[in-house]
Amino acid sequence: MTDFASITDQLALQAIELPSWAFGNSGTRFKVFGTPGTPRTVQEKLADAAQVHAFTGLAPTVALHIPWDKVDDYAALAAYARDLGVALGTINSNTFQDDAYKFGSLTHLDPAVRRKAIDHHLECIDIMDATGSRDLKIWLADGSNYPGQADLRGRQDRLAESLQVIYDRLGPDQRLVLEYKFFEPAFYHTDVCDWGTSYAQVAALGPKAMVCLDTGHHAPGTNIEFIVMQLLRLGKLGSFDFNSRFYADDDLIVGAADPFQLFRILYEVVRGGGYGPDSGVAFMLDQCHNVEDKVPGQIRSVLNVQEMTAKAMLVDTDALAAAQEAGDVLGANGVFMDAFYTDVRADLADWRESRGLPADPMAAFAATGYLGRIAAERVGGTQAGWGA
Ligand code: PSV
Ligand code: MN
User: Fold this and answer.
1) 334-348 tens-digit pLDDT
2) Please, what is the angle between helix 259-271 and helix 329-341, to 10°?
3) pLDDT tens track for 254-282
4) For residue range 279-323, what is the model confidence (pLDDT) as tens digits?
């Protein structure tokens, strides 16, 4: 077994981006429950996100969603974030809530609707210029509900044309990541439904276009770590949206539903050179906290990723390779499982303390009384929410 001390330099490089929308209210089509203290503004979302970083040292950047986080002065917002100890990260576009997009956005039959959707993305790139963000994340709700409703091939061709216009506007250090999802809100077909479709589209665009893998966007039983391996092998894994799911796109806390799957994914990330600041892979959360407190929900999330990353780094790769080469099926599996079953929590707590961080970030945050304070202070106004 690789020992813990030998992985801490690597672990110290970990950076996980938080979604601004995780701090707003969210729910299902049945009910969105409000929580006292929920941010009313993007500035308050950033203040909450900064708490997660302060207690874990793991979350130095925050992703914005446009128009949910629209402000007049993005450079000023970036400075505001810096003062809180975080930076603005990925800019997410949104073409799924405007009436014009009922039958699609970048794929729409009507050139005027396509132009509107393209212009929205160009505006997002203007925002990236002001915030210094590297990545534009595109997820499209485009699709159809009934066989025959839409010309699948025509939509794919129009998508390629629209994406090309957006791609051509990217600055030299900017990238586009195209997220896929197999269904919802469209139920028959989705235009970017799987990694192969996203890969085909971004490969045609060029080196600044990559695939975004949201862990909740696959059919049950899909071997996600295989997709991670393949995209890394092809040099096209741009980013993760981490979350976990029991059924569909549940957006629950990463590692909550299936810690072993998260371990397997992170093993392939480390194995494939996808870890660390030079890897080009952005690690983001894309979650909603419908019933639990949001700041601790995000703290728990980044700690889950850290814990499974540590375990993935503990895999004795020499012993694993030897067992694989010898055809020792159970031996190889045993080496892999040894790392997964290693309890790294005490080592992580000691290591955090040695770096001036709380051994138990959840308890340390709870002890500050921050949630009580924001509940008392944030009175009036409209609480932010997913979709508003
Ligand atoms: C779509 O389900 C998605 O995963 C995309 O990343 C959106 O931008 C995000 O969720 C919004 O919650
Ligand atoms: Mn996502």
Assistant:
1) 999 999 999 999 999
2) 110
3) 999 999 999 999 999 999 999 999 999 99
4) 999 999 999 999 999 999 999 999 999 999 999 999 999 999 999
- Ligand 1 neighbours (beta carbon < 6 A): 21, 92, 139, 179, 181, 214, 241, 249, 286, 386
Residue 61 DSSP label: E
Q: Which residues surround ligand 2, an ion (CB under 5 A)?
A: 214, 241, 286
* Cα gap 331→323, rounded to integer Å: 6
Structural domains for the chain = 14-312+368-377 (3.20.20.150)
Q: Rounded to an integer, what is the distance from CA 44 to the centroid of its chain?
A: 20
Q: How far is the CA of 179 from the centre of ligand 2 (A)?
A: 7
Cα–Cα–Cα angle for 222, 225, 228, rounded to 5 degrees: 115
Q: How far apart are CA 365 and CA 50, in angstroms?
A: 12
The H-assigned helical ranges of 90-239 are 111-131, 152-169, 195-205, 224-233
Q: Nearest Cα to 291, choosing from 35, 2, 61, 85? A: 35
Residues whose CB falls within 8 Å of the CB of residue 61, separated by 6 or more in sequence, listed in order: 15, 17, 18, 86, 87, 88, 89, 90
In angstroms, the CA 240 to CA 243 distance is 9
pTM: 0.98
Provide the b/e sequence for 133-147 (b: ≥16 CB within 10 Å): bbbbbbbbbbbbeee
Q: Are 228 and 265 in contact (CB under 8 A)?
A: yes
Of 184, 245, 286, the one to substitute when testing ligand 1's pocket (max ligand atoms within 8 A of C-beta) is 286
The neighbouring-strand residues paired with 39 are: none
Burial of 329 (0-12, 13-18, 19+ CB in 10 A): exposed
How many residues in the chain? Answer: 388
Query: 18-47 b/e with 16+ CB inside 10 Å = b?
Result: bbbbbbbbbeeeeebeebebbbeebebbbb
